[in-house]
Each structure stands twice: as C-alpha cells, then as structure tokens.
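Two records follow; treat each independently.
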Amino acid sequence: MPLPQSSPSLKKILVEWGLSEDSARFISESGYVLEDLLLSEPEDLGPITDLLSHPETLRLKRGILKARKETAESQITEIYEVPAEVDSLLIDAVPVIDVSVPPSKKPRTDPPVTNDTTQQVESSSTNSSQFNPLIPPQNFLNHSNGLINPSVQIVQLKPKKVIISSHEVLLQALQEDNKGTTILHLYKINKKLGEVEQGILANFIINTELSQENKFIKAARFKELSLFIKRIFPSEDEVTWYSPYKPLKNGHGIPARGRLLNAYYTARKALIRCGVTPSQREKFKKTPGTLDTGKELTKEEKEELLKKIDFIQKHSKPYKTVEAHWQDTYEYRNKGETPIHDYYSTYPILSTKDGYKLLVKDFLVRYPGFEHKFVTNWTTFVREFSEFVNANPTSYEAIIASFNIDLSVEDEDLATVNVARLLCLILDKAVGQLTKKDVVESFLCVVKNVQDVILKVEERKQKFLKLNRTVQPYPIIVVDDEQQITECYACVNNILYKLSSPMSALDVCFKIYHALDARYPTEAKGAWQFIQQNIYDIKTEYDDNLAQGRKLHKRLLEFKLKKLG
C-alpha cells in the first residue's frame, strides 16, 4: 500500500482518525508524513502527543495501529515485478535456487522474524508492479516471461555477522552476497540505483547491523552508513539514505527520515515483537538496582503480589502499609506505559500530601545513591553560573531585565529561583502560541501569593488544553513583593505537593519525571535535560541533541578553567 507523502493527505487522514482540524493541521504542517507515524515507536510520538489531549492521543494511536495493519495486509499480497530488460541480467547474475516446498508441508504465512529463523512468505497469484522494499527478494528467482514466478517462495536468510567499519568492508560484504552482487551489477549498467535496489540494500545493511544482540543504531551511525553508500554508489544522494532531524525557527522541526531509518524501525519492531531484542523503554529500565531479576514467581507469590496491588489501588492508609506494598510491587507497576493521569487514577495514594515520596522511592530504585545528588551539585552550579553571567553581562542583560532577575541575592533559595528561571530563558524559546513566560513557567513558576497558586494551576491547565498540550510536572514558588519565599510546591497532575524549598521542588519534579517515564515538556526540554546531564550526571542514548545546552555547558567549563588559570 503506497504511503501518502503530502501534508494535505496526512491532515485528511488524521481528521478521519478523530483528531480536530487544528491538531491535524498542526501535525501535517510540522513536516510529518504518514510514514513517520507508522514507523514510530510509542516514545517517538512524544513531540506530537505532548500537543494533544488524552482522547486525541488515544485516537491517534488507534489510527496508527489500524493503518499499520492495513499496510501489512496489503504488503503480504503483493507480487514483485521485474522489468523484462532487467530480468535476464538478474538470471545471469544470481543462480536459481529451488526453494519449493512439498504440498504436504504448507508454509506458514505468519512466521516470526528473527535473525535465527528462516522466513517463508507465499506470494499471491496476482501480479503487481508495486515493489515492497521492506521485504527484499532473496535467491528465489525463476525465469518466467520476465516475472517472478508467483508460486516460488521468498526465503529470508540469516544475515552474515559483519561489522561495517568502512565502505571497503561494506563493498566486500556485498560482493560476497548474491543480492549484493546483483545490486552492484545493476548499478554498473544503469549508473544509478532504482527503488528496488535501494530497498534491498537498505535491508541488507540494517540486517547486518542488527546481527549483534540488542543492537541500537544511533544518528551518527546512520550518517556514517550513508557516507559508505555514497562512496560505493557515487550517484546516490546521502539524504535519500539518512536525513537527520532539522529544527525550524517556529519551534517545530522536520523529523529524521531516510531508507536506512525506515528499514531500521521496521526490523526492530519485528525483533521486539518476537522478544529477540528489548524496546528502548525495557532497556532503559534494566539499570542497576531495579527489581527485574527474571525470577519466575510461584503461584503463591503471584497471589500475594496481586493482593498488594489491589490494596494500594484501593487504599491510601495506613501509610506505612501502603509504602511497604508500593516498594514490593515496583517491578509489576513499571511494566506498562501508563499516562500520568491514568497512573494517578489507579493509585489514589499519589494524590495525598505524601504521594510524591513513593515516586521518589521509585526513582531511587532506578538510580540508587542519587538521593542528594541535586542538592549537592546545584549549590555549586548556582554560584558558578551566577559568576559566569555576571562576567558576560552583555549576553544576558536583556533577558535579565525583562524578567526582573537578580543574581546578586545572597539568599540561597531566592538564588535558586533566579538561576533556574534564567537557565530556562537561555536554553528554551517560545513555542507556537506559548510565550516566553509560559516556557519558563514549565520549568519553574513564580507567583506572588498563596491565593495565586490555585489560579495559576487552573490558568495553565486551561491554556494548554486549548492548545492541545499536556501540562507536565513543574515547581511553583511563592515570592512576595518583598522578595521573600513563603511557599514551595511541586505540581503534578494538578496535585500540589508542599515542599520545604525551591531546590526540593525542582528535585522532586525531576525525580517524578523519571519515576513515571514522563517526557519533559517540549517548551522547557532544554532546561530539564541540562540539569539531568550536568547536575544529576545522568546521560542516556535517548537524550535529544540540544545545541544550546551543549554550548552553554562548554562556555561554563571554559570560564571555570580560565578562572583556575
């Protein structure tokens, strides 16, 4: 089934799935195409779902699943037509292999796709000129008037384990493979690769890369592989094979795309479904200190576990009992991907004044020893950051004046508020209809009195609802007219947790993000990721490549080294 590639067609499809006209237009105008959605992991949809209401998010995911199913069904019935003038070349280049199956052994139509499994797909009896690059032809060609014989089956062979360290290694791997020699032969004649050859080559490279267990391919590797392809096939455009994410001035961006990326997503989805390799979420959760022991529970242990789950889903008292059951059920509770709102609805204890403490405990299971990491490093950062800004007044004086930020204050809590706000203002920009004030409030919100706290929570809730965005966890600090801090809160799912200081509020919000596997708000992602990487010293292969954060970190290091002489 050919995938629509134009924004108007995507908008129409999204509306048919149940999204509003505004949401559909926003997504289509942000540079997405249907193929991006169909090939995305659930976690890859964050930049979109952050903008949608919960009902629209569910409709989007249902639509994607339905479209994937329809696409898969249409692909199974397709026949791959080889032009007559090319057919003879293929027959000369590739030896014909008899892969017929005795009538008594009907091939499976839905075999698991793994590196160690031979896949057989029975072709339909109807000819089609549409080639599916995601299921490449193997050594199954049968000369029959220029067409692949529909009775012959496709055999997926186990890829040879090769580390593609250079274009020479890739060239040698192609020369040693029947499909590879065919591609090289056709390129020599035509001086270019057609869609058929591009699809086969992409799958060949990705299958080779994924031959290593639990292999993940990063952006830099995709770029490197596209360069290797260019060296072997000079007429090929690198962006055809991999084009990285490109941010736009309006706060949106063009998603990463390319044949290598598409083949990678498709292959990994198949491996994840079969349990051969873990999803990103599963890999992230298998960190030291988790309770994922792989131990099979006995019947009695399962019954006891379910009793504890049932208890914490129905009770918030006595706290000590709930706390003990909460810790005992960590592994069970963290197996699924549950939105924050649903998680809070499932466990009422989280809506009590001490609910945040349980989520902090979950964070510490994942990151043992990080209990005081923020307080220890943040205090030093506040001092060094203030010195850096004061030494470069012209760079930041406009922002400081606009938001009335005073870095000369001696009060530690007030200094935290000012530094946190300035950090966000430097690293994050206004997005869409969100102002700079909205952006900084997603990292740390300041109000003048306690009465304004509830009003601010409701105001942000309504504004983000109209924009089809979700309100993620954020601190609220009450600073009166005399610049005295009177109250501190962490706002999560419209629940206000009262805390002792601005540092505690930031610390708790950060730990809740990671305990719930929640995404940072798009509008304040730069600031949250900066403290993740540079205050908590947590770095993952799934972090966004944010240039502003890297630049600021580099300048701070240079300033520090200069001071040391």
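The next record belongs to a different protein.
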Amino acid sequence: MGIDHLSEFKIEEQNKAYEGATFEVGNQSFRSRRAKKTPKKLGYFVAFWEKDENRKNQPYDYESAPDKLIITIFDQDKIGQFVFPKSILADKNSLTNKKKRGKMALRLYPDWIKGLNKTAAETQRWQHSYFIDLTNTWDLDFLDKLYFG
C-alpha cells in the first residue's frame, strides 16, 4: 500500500457530529466523515460543509478541497468506506466551482442496501466504484487504489 506517514491531522469542529477530520498521508490530503443511518429512508447521510467569513454554512470549494473524501459506515455488523476523489465530487456537483454551487451533504448507498427506488439505485451505481465493504475481508489492492490511486 502507498502508506507513508499520517500528518496534519485536524478535527473539524463544525462537523464534529460526523467525526469530521482532515489529514495527510504522504503527498495526498484527505477529509474524513462518519455517515449516519437514516431511520425513515434507506441509506446513510453525511454532512460536509464549512463556515464562510460571515459564519454561514457553505459547501466546500473544489480549489481548496482535499484530494479525497473518506466516508466510513458502521452499521451493526457491517463496515464499509467510500473514498471519493475530489474530481468525482466535482462531476457530481458536490463541490462548489466557478459554474455551480456544491452540496453540503450526501446520501450514501453501500452495496449491501437492496430495494432502492430508481433514483437511489442510480446513485448507488456510480458510488459503487468508490466503495469497499470491510465487513469480512480487506482487498488491500483495491484499498490502495481507492486511497492512493
């Protein structure tokens, strides 16, 4: 794996409810969150935003965003992670850029969720490429690709 050493670890106070943090490993920067299961809708929810100079919540900006967003899910006996490169977050309009305002949250659908409506199933399909189920086994090559590829 491409693990060097962890540095620049910082808790993100504004996203403490989602265990928000930023850190670097080698020459890659990461933002990390823990998703929450939603009681009335299938899937999980995670917030990621920052305060602007007026202390108002705003989506993260593409230019200042870390290289990857890691979202971890713990759900009873299931564990998984999404590792999204900032390029895919930009493509999915989750980060603010010169043309469009980003989002301040995401709904996530790990592979173990079944019976989704059409829109949620489409979201799950694109998210699948960035998800690893860590419940029983760890595919180290795929983990390395997600984190450092």
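Discussion point: The longest helix spans residues 118-128. How would you locate this feature using only the token line?
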